[in-house]
TrEMBL record:
Protein name: AlpA family transcriptional regulator
Lineage: Bacteria, Bacillati, Actinomycetota, Actinomycetes, Micromonosporales
């Protein structure tokens, strides 16, 4: 909590789950891109991102067509 505000955070595992179970390697590829939000913390266990920024990034991405 910072100045009375709580922040929801996401790590690589949560991002992978949110993106329909993509691999950890693919998560790292995506999070390394210039258009992905910057992490707010880098811990020994990995980086953390604000969930609201990750959700906004996901919403702004075009969805690939579904295979038929």
């Amino acid at each position: 909590m910072v100045d009375g505000m709580a922040f929801d955070l996401m790590g690589a595992h949560e991002i992978g789950e949110r993106l329909h179970g993509i691999s950890r390697q693919r998560v790292y590829q995506l999070t390394s891109g210039d258009d992905f939000p910057a992490p707010v913390a880098a811990l020994a266990q990995g980086k953390l991102w604000l969930a609201s920024e990750v959700e906004a990034w996901i919403a702004a991405r075009p969805r690939p067509p579904r295979p038929r």
